[in-house]
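User: Some background: our group keeps a shared notebook of sequences we're curious about, and every so often someone picks one and asks for a predicted structure to add to the entry. Today it's my turn. The entry only has the sequence so far, pasted here. Could you supply the structure so I can complete it?
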Amino acid sequence: MENYIAVMLPIILPILLGLFVLINPVYKHNRRFLIGTIIASGVLIVAVTVSALDLENAEYTLFYLTRALPIDFKIDVLGRFFTVIVTTCWIAETVFSFRYLPENETERRFHGFNLIVLGILYALGFSGNLMTFYMFYELMTILSMPLVIHTMDHEAVMAGLKYLFFSFAGAYCALFGFYFVQHDLNIAFTEGGSASVALLGDKAPFMLAVAFIMILGFGVKAGLFPMHGWLPTAHPVAPAPASAFLSGIIVKMGVLGTIRTVYYIFGADFLRGTWVQYTWMGLALFTVFMGSMLAYREKILKKRLAYSTVSQLSYILFGLAAMDANAAEGALLHVLAHAFIKSTLFLCAGAMIHATGKIRVEDFKGIGKKMPITLWCFTIASLGLIGIPPTAGFISKWYLCVGALRSPLGSLSYLGPVVLLVSAALTAGYLLPITIHGFLPGRDAVVDTEPVHEHKTMVGPMIALMVLMLFAGLFPGYIMQFIDAAVSGFGL
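Assistant: Of course. Here's the predicted structure to add to the notebook entry:
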């Protein structure tokens, strides 16, 4: 019974609360009651989740699809790590949404699905086997679509359909791999994986191809080339809180799926030194460079940030592909750093668009005179994304480069850090001009200097995420202990 409460309550509670918000007619014309319920729900969910995280290795089987396919949940260090990040970013974007969203019926729909998706994300973090992860991975895609199509205009609906098409294509690749994995390997997430040449025999080359297809499948959600196209389409049309959650958290479930596949199903020893590792790393490095170049050329602010997400997520995939302990530590730290940084950047962008009604980068000249707190948060988060000390982005990229140089990958060991440095320079090129022109628009610029009231429910979440990002950079030892424990399960 204790395991059931510890494992299932963080999953079931947000889903039930979300359904209650969606179907309860009381909320239709009572915004204060809605917001009060969401705040109370958030406090309750956090309390339950923190209690659950204290019970490591708690397990519970919900039911069996077949005798060989249990829907199984287990709390391990990796799942706890992702769950803490999910909870933190969810609180920030939810508080921000109270002021950002218009006071109408769509607000209730947003908060309802926002709560349900939170429960689904907990289920993904606590999944104990590949079948459970796949089932909730599909549910995450379906139930997060209303966040993308929130405005319900033609552009949003088309973006939502593209999001579904790409996500389902990736999930079906994972399902294809699952079909073969269940016959020859253990579908339960096992530290270090269960595949080996000795075990698979003549099937080993085919299972390498299966592993690669699954990596590509989960890579769709993580924006890996060539299936990255949904990100720059979906992010600009979604409301800023949804964009922050999509870019900061939901895309990380593709990363989590990749980790579970590589390190908990197949194993690093089975994949290391094969064509799968080299091809995967090559795609990740190409995506890093391509995403940075596309972001550098993009003129629409939220679309620029979406291309940036494409690039930065492949930093994480590059670290995982190196199959080195230091690189894996850097990858997990970059999961945390990017979640906080990109959530901050999207919230800042949303606040500026909300205040001005403009969307293009050149339209925000002089915005620092109207919204100084927002632009300062944007600036510090930008420095973190570039990798300037003492931010968490600097520490994560340091570990990534050290791990790459230590890995026996031939020329890729040196090419990787070079690409990361070039990408950092491009990141500075597409983010810092926004700050420079925002504070120093120039003598000839026509700037509206009338100040904008920066509401505390909008700037508060930005400041909180920014402080957490700086704390992770100034005092990384506290976080690295947790990350080291997670990486110890990778079998590196």
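Suggested note for the entry: DSSP finds 21 helices and two strands in the chain. The first helix runs from residue 2 to 23.
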